[in-house]
Write a structure and sequence with these properties.
With 342 residues, the protein is an all-beta fold. It has no helices and 34 strands. The protein folds into two domains: 81 residues, Immunoglobulins (Immunoglobulin-like); 246 residues, TolB, C-terminal domain (Neuraminidase).
């Protein structure tokens, strides 16, 4: 009898290095630790827990490909295998606190090295080119947090240190756009190119034009940042991570009235929609960390990408999901397309 058993499925089927995946199996005989193992393309993974029907393992790093084979071994026996997609690291040595942004002009990524509040670092904004080169942007912004492009392909950045919004011209010039916005964090634009900014102290601002900001909605304060995204229903979706494991995703209509779209996430952060209306949120769900996928009606949520310290994501024109941790970004070729890029 094969003591390694048979792998039934991998949950979730996507991950970044360091994420926890659940190997559902049958007939696995967990004995002494040195007698069995879980392997990713032949590399031994750290096992968190094991039983005859499931094995929880930590995804190793530095694979040569994103398609990775998983199998179990026990006492010289080897199980059947299953494949998962593991994200490829694009850049590290960063400090990201919200979603990256895709430049619609050339598909490069805008990334941050934000620093702790009030800390001025030598370089805080970067452009990651499609070819893999990480370029420093020669603009000085303390604690850049939210980054987003408007409908005219113009880049804007929130600075939580001074509560300002800056427009970035040609990667070299900063133009103050709006000020006195509290601890400005999240940033999003609606279909009419109106800017919305989240002050983590409890206010969502609507910025109609240059410097013209008004209160749009009031929510519970966040311990870290507000994160904003517009859905295909033209409503604003907001996360406000707290200290609970039962936080909500809020939905706000055009008049500023809010409701709970989904509740049950731990520390929900960056969020993005695909073209089918599914919402992806960097969060913890039932004790598991990574990217959570929520159905368009908010009725069902599932762990979609396993990963630790995930703070945000974005979707590219090539169907890639870019997953950002607090210090690195990864690319997963999933064939999922976002709503904001043509």
């Amino acid at each position: 009898m094969n003591k390694a058993g048979k792998i039934i499925s991998i949950n979730p089927p996507y991950a970044i290095p360091g994420g926890e995946v659940l190997v559902n199996c049958e007939g696995f005989q967990a004995g002494e630790a040195d007698e069995y193992g879980c392997y990713f393309d032949g590399r031994a993974a750290r096992i968190v827990g094991a039983s005859k029907s499931r094995v929880m393992a930590i995804v190793p790093d530095d694979f040569d490909t994103t398609k990775v084979e998983i199998y179990l071994e026990n006492g010289g026996d080897r199980s059947t295998s299953k494949n998962i997609v593991v994200g490829k690291k694009l850049a590290d040595d960063l400090h990201i606190v919200a979603n990256p942004a895709v430049d619609p002009k050339d598909d490069s990524l805008i990334l941050t090295r934000s620093g702790s509040r009030g800390q001025q670092l030598p370089v805080t904004l970067f452009r990651l080119e499609k070819e893999g080169f990480l370029d420093e942007m020669s603009v000085e912004i303390m604690n850049p947090t939210g980054v987003a492009f408007d409908q005219t392909e113009q880049l804007y950045v929130t600075a939580r240190a001074d509560g300002e919004i800056y427009r970035i011209d040609h990667d070299t010039e900063i133009v103050p756009y709006a000020s006195e916005l509290g601890i400005a964090t999240g940033l999003a634009f609606d279909k009419n190119n109106v800017m919305f900014v989240g002050d983590r102290s409890g206010t969502i601002y609507r910025v109609e034009s240059f410097g013209n900001a008004e209160s749009f909605a009031i929510l519970e304060p966040s311990v870290s940042a507000y994160h904003l995204a517009f859905g295909s229903d033209e409503k604003l979706y907001v996360t406000a991570p707290g200290l609970s494991s039962f936080d909500a995703v809020y939905r706000i209509d055009k008049d500023g009235y809010d409701e709970i779209f989904y509740r049950g996430l731990g520390r929900p952060q960056g969020l993005a929609f695909d073209r089918d209306g599914n919402l992806y949120v960097a969060a913890c769900l039932q004790g598991r960390h990574g990217i959570v996928k929520i159905a368009p009606d908010g009725a069902v949520a599932e762990m979609f990408v396993a990963g630790m310290n995930v703070v945000g994501l974005c979707l590219t024109r090539q169907g890639e999901m870019i997953v950002a941790t607090n210090d690195a970004v990864y690319s997963l070729p999933l064939g999922i397309y976002g709503t904001l890029l043509n």
